[in-house]
Write a structure and sequence with these properties.
This protein has one domain: Lipid/polyisoprenoid-binding, YceI-like (Lipocalin), CATH 2.40.128. Strands 1, 2, 3, 4 and 5 form a five-stranded antiparallel beta sheet that branches. The protein is built from two helices and five strands. By secondary structure, it is an alpha+beta fold. The longest helix has 17 residues.
Length: about 150
């Protein structure tokens, strides 16, 4: 369950980072690269067949949420004393699926949104077929967010 929580956070971060149409990949501002968390303890491979990234995105103002899934291409988690210490994940961006239940407008189709998300004006999966996510730090939550997965830390 902890693996899915971490992976879900990956998807939310990817979607949030890509939602600004005003910046293209050529002129997007970047921050200083952060040091990746040191792998300690047992390294567990991600089950790529049984694992899925659940994502949820909102339009500006929080209207018309959309959600769906992405597949994990590869990854691992480092566990020490029952807690995550590090992790690396490669997400298959061409596997993005939109849940039909999230598309409520009669004139919209999930396949159209999937195509839009794969196009150059969004993730540009032709040039960026995968997304890498590396954990930079791990800390206990002081208070779990209201939408956190049960048992998330």
């Amino acid at each position: 369950m902890k693996k899915l929580s971490v992976i879900a956070l990956v998807a939310v971060g990817l979607l949030a980072a890509s939602c600004n149409k005003e910046k293209s990949a050529e002129n997007a501002a970047t921050s200083t690269e952060q040091k990746v968390a040191e792998s300690k303890g047992e390294v567990l491979p991600v089950d790529t067949v049984g694992s899925v990234v659940n994502w949820k995105a909102f339009h500006k103002g929080g209207m018309a949420p959309r959600w769906g899934t992405l597949m994990v291409k590869s990854g691992d988690l480092s566990i020490e004393n029952g807690g995550v210490t590090a992790g690396n994940f490669v997400i298959d961006m061409n596997s993005i699926k939109v849940d039909p239940a999230s598309v409520t407008e009669k004139d919209k189709k999930p396949a159209d949104l999937e195509a839009h998300l794969k196009n150059a004006d969004f993730f540009d999966t032709a040039k960026n077929p995968t997304a890498d996510f590396k954990i930079t730090s791990v800390a206990d939550l002081k208070e779990a967010p209201k939408d956190a997965v049960a048992g998330a830390n």
